[in-house]
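S1.2 Input.
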Amino acid sequence: MRFFAGVCGALFIWSGRWYTIFMRKTYRAIQIAVAIGSGAAFCLWAAKQEKALSLGTPFAFLSLALFSGALISALFRLATLAGTDGDPLSSDTRAQRLKAWAALMSFGMAVSLVQYMLVFLLARPGTGFLAAFDHLYYRSDVAHYMGIARDWYAKEGDARLRLVFLPLYPLSARLFTWGENYYRGAFLAAQVFSLLCLPAGYELFRQDVDRRAAMACARLLFLLPGCAFLRVPMSESLFLLLTLLAVCFCRKKLYLPAALFAALSALTRSLGILILVLLGVEMLYDFALTWRQDHRRALSKLPGFAACLLLGCGGTLAYLAINRSVSGSAFTFLTYQRENWNQRMGLFFNTAAYQAQYAQYYLEQGKISSFLSLSVPNILCCFGTLGLLYAHRNRMRVSYLIWALVYFAAAVGATWLLSGPRYLGMLFVLAYPLKRLGNTAAKEGILEGILFLLQTGYLLMLALDMSVY
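S1.3 Output.
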């Protein structure tokens, strides 16, 4: 009997050591693979640069290093099926939920009203309240969205460039339009969608943290500098709302409505299809956990998973079909982006390099306005995002981290990035590390105050016709 117990104990110790060795070797293999891939990509990029040791080189290296560090953690935790937090926290009562929703929407309305009054008083005094906002927002991409809402897409003339913009937001704006003033309808739609992002965010964050922390996360997300565009008649408000709803249903393992909202998100902005990465990782974990308990039940889930992922592609497929029906090619929008906006897919760390070079150029030429409104916000938001993801790479849910990295690489990799803060403001996962920074009531209040000032300043720069896009 003692011999049998000794053998069992030895096997237990041996298996524990074997598991530790396996985990270490897995982590080391992932480290080596990512290091080789990142190093090769950086060397190939540097070889193509006119000046290998220009100002942009250290910025590119730092960007790639932070990204690679977070990627190593994400791949290791994915390979070992680690990094889920189990079942969602218990939900609130109906009264608690309604109270939280009301408080958050009141907060959103107060922030919006204060910022609008500051824009009216400081940027456009004497123009009339509504006229001030007409001037503020009827610029840049807004006119294209209004053209889609009014006349749909076109085959000829400058109106053909509307094909670059997706249709769901302008179609939604029609629901809020009275008469022929589509701009005012789109403006109202943006206010409604932006306010709805607060309770939607609360419901998602509540699955991971307590009630007070979930409300703080929703407020912090709303106050990100790029989220100033939530109240602009552009697609960001609807895109964020649909993304939050898709992830919220996915976390509850309601994959069909999650896929439906993912498809709608992809019909709002082209980056919306990337949310399927998050859904796919969550489905993988669901399958693995079920497999440990019941093989047959786990296998029975696979057809449903595949059907939901296919449904999630529906928004992108519908947009490609619109391209084909209007222009004869499903990918005409790529041609328009390249020829008229000089945008194509590139390397995200190359973006860090040329943003630094632009900043140097603006300073040398005395273009302080462009330096403050374009270079500084883009550089700070890109590196701030990477810094938060890297610092919290071992705490963040694996599906969130992988999606955030994929989204960052796709959004920031544009060859002529002007709207970094606006794109990165849609990364709801940033609310978690920000809340950890504000881990006391005092720190939380200070952090919210800083974000409010940054967001308001960014909005004022937009109102003053500075280089904010």
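S1.4 Remarks. Residues 89-327+438-469 form one domain.
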